[in-house]
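Feature request, filed as a ticket because there's no other form

It would be nice if the structure record came with a short human-readable summary line next to the tokens. Right now we just get the raw output. Example of a typical job, pasted below so the devs can see what we mean:
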Amino acid sequence: MNFLKMFSASMLAWIVGIVGIFVFAIGSLVSSLLNMNMGEVGIKEESVLYINIGEPITDAPSSSPLSGFDPMSMSVTESLSLLKVLTAIEQAATDDNIKGICIYADGVAYISPATIEELRNALNRFKKSGKFIVAYDYNYSQTDYYLASVADKIILNPEGSLDWYGCATSLMFYKGAFDKLGIGVEIFRPTACKYKSAVEPFFLTKMSDANRKQNQEMVDSIWQSLCEDVAASRNISVETLKNYAANLAVSFPEEALKAGMIDAVEQEDYLFALYDNYGVKRNENGLFNTTTLAEYVSSINTSHLSTSVGNSKSLEFETSPIVAIIYAEGQIFDGNEYEDGSVYGSRLAKELRDARLNDAIKSVVVRVNSPGGSAIASELAWREMTLLQQVKPVVISMGEMAASGGYYISAPADYIFSDKTTLTGSIGVFGMIPNIKNLLTYRLGITIDNTYTSPAALTPSPFQPVTDIQRKNLNKSVDKVYETFTQHVAEGRNLDINDVLNIAEGRVWSGTMAKEIGLVDAIGGFNEAVGKAIELADISSNYKICEYVAPLTPFEEYLNSMSFAYTKSLGLDYNIYGDEMRDIISEIPMVFTYSGIQTRVVGDLKIEF
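Raw output as currently delivered:
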């Protein structure tokens, strides 16, 4: 009896404890969400906008309030999508409250080179407003410095350093380890696809000659682009910059200052003297008003209150013409799911179809940031891209990479933009099956036996060697996919098939190189792509821009509703669609709004790109 009492009491305490932890976690999460709306609405006068690339910037937005939730700190970090950031910088140029920008390169968040390039271009456009840009850091990484080089003044801490060393690639090869473990790998790759190097680590111990060639040309192209941009901003020749890197000649503050890479070696308070010189007024406490990029994005963005859906039904009563933005970010998989950082072929195809059938949508921008993946998933999306392009303008904006399947789905578009540092092309195909039979048999003592109606009934498996008939059939499959891929590119890009075959072979190109060989139409970023979509649709005013975003789960809807209710209690008046007009680089007026609609667009073995 005493045992039962003690057991019941223990169970009750355990249940109460679990419930208490759950309630605390939910309370902390809700509190974090509400705190994101608790700050003062609007930006103070005489503010300096601080851009810290330690703040993560993603290609595709996330509608989920849980996307930035850190369970360790029980806090939520607001997600910054690239389009919102670019829009914020454009608005800052005409915002009387923003007196200038400070690039404060602090933090460890990964931001792709292509994103840094677009951010840098946006800052270059901002400078045309006549407002100042300064940069400060304790230690400039090469990426930090590339961004900071756009500034009017670059300051480095006296005890800091500057990385300027060039570009390199490093690959890890597994063949030696596989040999020791008794693991074999069967590779299926068309003979023509000698540059399709994703499989090389599994059967080679170093780069093939073809892979070394493409990697060397790739890093040379990207390094040339970086040096040209810095040279233009700092009035230093490209060759001089390359010599500095080759000799590590500007690592220390005094060296960097003498070489003209920076403008001052000073402590952080030197920034305040600069602000005074630029005419920024101090507040009543004798300090300067500052705002972070996240805060500024929030101050101009009304998207977090719009309904997030998996299609454009929310636009059915919209009378203004719509430019839709659809995201294909991540590895391409078969299926119909939503998942941040992944593209599912059926889901992407449905969203493209939805955009085609919605009369309110007049043109479409597809932001592609994908290394490729499933061949059949890419084909599904390609088909819908082709049908969409036949009735509405389609513009591709390539991010960090649009390779293999990422290029496959891009080929039908009317116009393709890429950044200079984008990795694209990789028009090729491969298949790979590991063979762990020897590992199982000789290392672990596991054997496998079969019965079958014919040898062909044994499907390719990691547990037994590929048979001759299977190998022949799989090689036919990859050859067929490669033929289809190259034909799609030839048709989509209006190129002769022989020209496509000469630049295909699975070879990866930088955006700069891809422009030269006709795989992309122009070097440009997200803004330029949206501007082109507006131009092609022949809509010059009263249009709206709408991103496709994933639908929320019921729990996420609940959290969003609580945040919304709190915001409404502050008396804020948000509209789903904004009406602010602004210019992009092509001087086409745009209205940025972020309304419910998003998706994610690399593979399993089946056939892979």
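Something like this underneath would help us a lot:
Residues 36-164+250-300 form a domain with the 2-enoyl-CoA Hydratase; Chain A, domain 1 fold (CATH 3.90.226.10).
The first helix runs from residue 2 to 35.
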